[in-house]
Amino acid sequence: MMPYYSRNGIVIYHADCRDVLPTLTAVSVNLILTDPPYNVSAPDIDLPGRKAMVRDFGKWDENYDPKRDLELWDRVLRQGSSVVAFTSCRLFGKWWEGLGTRLVPQGFDAWIKDNPPPHPRPVYVNAIEQIVWLCKAGAAHYWGGNGYTRNDIYAPSPSGRERTEHPTQKPLSVVRKLMLVHSGEGDLVLDPYMGSGTTLVAAKSLGRRAVGIEIEERYCEIAVARLRQEAWVTDEECYDPDADAKQGTLLDDAPARAPILMR
Fold first, then answer.
1. For residue 148, is pLDDT > 60?
2. Which of 54, 114, 183, 246 has its CA 20 to 30 A from that of 6?
3. Residue 132 is part of a domain; what is its CATH number?
4. Nearest to 23 by CA among 48, 50, 49, 3
5. Cα(95)–Cα(175) distance, integer angstroms
């Protein structure tokens, strides 16, 4: 399959990821970092005198089953590599099932929004998005954190110059932190649900190779435009692996990038 974009180790395919994944080289990927469907779509809410609250993301956000993707991802992942996926509470249990002894759940992160949007009804405002972490068995997994790497990441939702038209865009600062913890320089990062290309922008700025797959061409166009920029907003928020340690006592003196053996 011909790439939609290919430059300096960053490749984009405009297609359904389930059509592209079987064509990728087996056992080649160091990290899958992605934002697949959440199964949370609902009717939009009309707000008098204001723009409607968008909750209907389209057919792609219906009936998603992580296991179908995990089967495809298992083929391309190296032993000891990680899957880091944004998800919702509705799907967390399915992710946690993993693939038996092949792709094993290791833990989770939470993106905590500094600026969650208000809700017009008497319910909790959604200020947290879950991030699940699985590893492929067979080798030590890469760990770029330290002995006190917390699993809560505080950041505002994308706004201003960082914001694109993609309805579920994630902050570049959050994706960068996850990429630094779970991959090394020169590693190959795969995003099967690329969207507006935040994973690829993070990979380019951090010296990783990357493959992104996106079914909607308008988002491929946005991703290419972002990759062609020379600088990105929020780069000053690049994750410092020592920053978390300042909030508490280190649990050990292991080197910042020492791998930890899977159990």
1. yes
2. 183
3. 3.40.50.150
4. 3
5. 19
